[in-house]
Inverse folding.
């Protein structure tokens, strides 16, 4: 196996297949830790992990926090509104302040694309992207890949349909990079107004026909559609959206019997996914949550290891 | 006091000297252009056999005074201008307060006179406070010294208001300069909409936000039979619309900025906020079209859209950083590199696009050419000088440019305004 060399995790666009395999393999061994009586290993004892969330998040933040704690790292959490920026403090100032507390890793979520990369350029600690604008959400994509691999035994050759608000989705973009690199065939599906211009050029298929995508896919990822999209004139109504693009029991019957139903959460029950689907046998939505901890343990372990060895070289 | 510039190749928009000449200047005017002029009383400068162009004129500069003197002032902007070879410039009215009344225009002109380096023709706003509601008092603006009006930074989006602006300004004799960008289509956009914005997850401003306003205003100008000027044209489609309108005899003119013939949207992948500008960087195909349009004259002139910002403002995330880059000091180098060296323009065409055409657009009758009796506004350029754009050498108060570290070809050696040396790199 290859050696991990990236001290930060910003985006998956240029990752190699070997790197993905290493992450998934590492996560597999960490998943076992969470099943133990004593759910803790000393891998990151003495390390401090700071969580810098400029956007509200419960799941991702607690998942990272749990991951850090199960590796014996200390955690501190900053919930900041982007409005603290309006006081004249830039995101870089804020991050520099946190760096000054000698933290080893900064996990950052920000509503603007590019911020984690900006921080990685300027900060000494490892920077892990926990979601930046519409651009990337690498650990979400990785946990999705892990869940598919775990349930279906492979990613190569699978047809993955991602349905929803692709335009505003960092999850769709990030999954597309990862799944394509691992040999899956990715179709992005949604209303024409929510499909970004030129997305087909990255190698995915694009469709507005949810019925067909649901019929043909081995994996269905349903994305959250926000109510604001109606006010922003992207959609006539969530009612019509649910009817044409939502996954319900009747539609699921047309899908492959073994289809995996996924959702990055939190779900809008009754919009992109009906209540009975979220809880059905095909749904792996809760597995995704469980696997999120394992993936984030793997990422923390790998990037902090790479940071350590690059420091030693200096 | 007379000034004698020896040994220069005179470059006019319509001709370029075969051999070096001398230029004698007195009372702010060119007195003689000939070989071997002798004048014992004149101050003599040796021109090194380099190219002497009529003083460069920039139709599009943000000087930030009043309001954001931390970014630029009339004084620092003037210094940057003469270093870049400009002897005249039009400063934009999107200051704080907005230049929308005679008193503010007079104040800017007075300060420009105190600094005394470069002719500054402030543009007044088209609408009061740039609020897109009511027209400014354009007769008063004209009397105060305005040659042009613009709401630059935003479009006059309301079609009826723009119709009135064009009709009224034509009567007054003011040039209307439109920033073409549909505010709703471009809302929150921070880069060109396309494959790159899609991959980066950045909000796109589609090219149609430029072309829709451009096409509308071409229709207005054609219908009203009045002139209109279009700022910072950035797209192939815009070039096509302008070319078609000109073929039909509609009296429009257009400018393009160096960044739009030097950089593409692919650069934004670095998330460097010095690559955020408005209009945004476009595709390689658009860059090729802008170069061709400057070559064939579809786009009349080059204007920098010099837009200074402090490091604090630019060290933001890409969404919140203000758009724009400084451009006065790199314009000649970029023109030399991207247009002359590449064969799109020869030096007489540079004199046309950077001096004669902007002079005509503004109605400056004695500028834009070198001949006896013309204003002694002159720019001496070493066309073969290669130099690296370096932060330490920038005299503008702000340093926000993506061209640092670039090797440029063509450098200003001497700038003369009104017969006086206002910038010199001569020994």
């Amino acid at each position: 196996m290859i050696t991990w060399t990236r001290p930060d995790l910003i985006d998956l666009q240029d990752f190699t297949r070997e790197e993905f395999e290493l992450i998934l393999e590492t996560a597999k061994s960490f998943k076992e830790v969470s099943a133990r009586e004593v759910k803790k290993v000393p891998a990151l004892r003495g390390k401090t992990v700071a969580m810098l969330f400029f956007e509200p998040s419960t799941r991702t933040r607690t998942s990272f926090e749990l991951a850090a704690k199960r590796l014996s790292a200390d955690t501190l959490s900053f919930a900041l509104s982007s409005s603290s920026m309006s006081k004249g403090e830039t995101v870089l100032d804020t991050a520099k302040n946190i760096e000054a507390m000698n933290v080893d890793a900064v996990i950052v979520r920000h509503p603007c694309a590019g911020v984690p990369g900006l921080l990685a350029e300027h900060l000494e600690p490892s920077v892990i992207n926990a979601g930046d604008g519409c651009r990337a959400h690498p650990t979400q994509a990785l946990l999705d890949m892990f869940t598919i691999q775990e349930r279906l035994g492979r990613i190569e050759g699978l047809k993955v349909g991602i349905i929803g608000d692709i335009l505003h989705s960092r999850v769709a973009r990030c999954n597309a990079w990862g799944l394509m690199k691992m040999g899956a065939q990715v179709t992005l599906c949604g209303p024409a107004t929510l499909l970004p211009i030129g997305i087909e050029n990255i190698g995915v298929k694009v469709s507005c026909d949810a019925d067909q995508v649901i019929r043909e896919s081995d994996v269905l990822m349903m994305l959250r559609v926000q109510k604001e999209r109606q006010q922003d004139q992207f959609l006539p109504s969530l009612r019509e959206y649910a009817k044409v693009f939502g996954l319900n029991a009747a539609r699921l019957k047309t899908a492959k019997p073994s289809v995996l139903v996924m959702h990055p959460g939190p779900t809008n029950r009754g919009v992109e996914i009906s209540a009975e689907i979220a809880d059905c046998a095909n749904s792996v939505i809760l597995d995704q949550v469980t696997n999120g901890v394992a993936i984030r343990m793997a990422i923390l372990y790998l990037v902090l290891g790479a940071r350590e060895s690059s420091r030693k070289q200096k | 006091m007379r000034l004698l510039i020896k040994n220069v190749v005179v470059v006019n928009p319509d001709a370029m000297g075969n051999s070096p000449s001398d230029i004698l200047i007195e009372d702010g005017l060119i007195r003689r252009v000939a070989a071997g002029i002798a004048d014992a009383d004149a101050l003599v400068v040796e021109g090194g056999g380099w190219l002497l162009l009529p003083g460069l004129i920039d139709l599009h500069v943000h000087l930030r005074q009043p309001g954001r003197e931390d970014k630029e002032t009339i004084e620092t902007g003037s210094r940057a201008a003469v270093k870049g070879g400009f002897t005249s410039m039009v400063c934009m009215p999107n200051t704080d307060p907005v230049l929308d009344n005679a008193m503010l225009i007079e104040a800017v002109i007075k300060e420009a006179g105190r600094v005394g380096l470069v002719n500054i023709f402030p543009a007044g706003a088209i609408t009061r406070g740039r609020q897109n509601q009511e027209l400014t008092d354009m007769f008063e603006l004209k009397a105060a010294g305005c040659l042009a009006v613009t709401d630059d930074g935003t479009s006059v989006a309301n079609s009826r208001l723009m119709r009135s602006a064009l009709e009224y300004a034509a009567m007054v004799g003011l040039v209307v300069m439109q920033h073409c960008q549909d505010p709703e289509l471009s809302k929150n956009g921070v880069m060109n909409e396309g494959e790159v914005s899609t991959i980066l997850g950045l909000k796109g401003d589609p090219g149609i936000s430029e072309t829709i306003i451009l096409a509308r205003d071409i229709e207005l100008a054609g219908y009203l039979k009045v002139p209109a000027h279009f700022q910072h044209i950035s797209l192939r489609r815009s070039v096509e619309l302008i070319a078609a309108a000109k073929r039909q005899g509609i009296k429009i003119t257009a400018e393009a900025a160096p960044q739009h013939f030097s950089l593409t949207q692919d650069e934004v992948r670095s998330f460097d906020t010095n690559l955020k500008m408005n209009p945004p960087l476009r595709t390689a195909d658009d860059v090729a079209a802008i170069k061709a349009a400057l070559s064939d004259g579809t786009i009349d002139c080059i204007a920098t859209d010099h837009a200074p910002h402090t490091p604090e403002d630019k060290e933001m995330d890409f969404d919140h950083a203000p758009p724009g880059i400084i451009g006065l000091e790199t314009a000649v180098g970029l023109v030399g590199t991207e247009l002359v060296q590449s064969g799109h323009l020869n030096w007489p065409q540079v004199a046309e696009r950077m001096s004669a055409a902007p002079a005509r657009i503004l109605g400056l009758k004695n500028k834009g050419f070198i001949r006896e009796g013309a204003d002694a506004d002159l720019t001496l350029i070493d066309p073969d000088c290669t130099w690296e754009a370096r932060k330490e050498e920038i005299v503008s108060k702000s340093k926000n440019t993506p061209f640092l570290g670039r090797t440029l070809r063509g450098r200003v050696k001497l700038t003369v305004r009104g017969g006086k040396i206002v910038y010199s790199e001569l020994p």
Summary: The mean pLDDT of chain B is 97. Residues 9 and 186 of chain B are 46 Å apart (CA to CA). The first strand of chain B starts at residue 2 and ends at 12. Chain B has two domains: 3-51+375-424, 56-357.
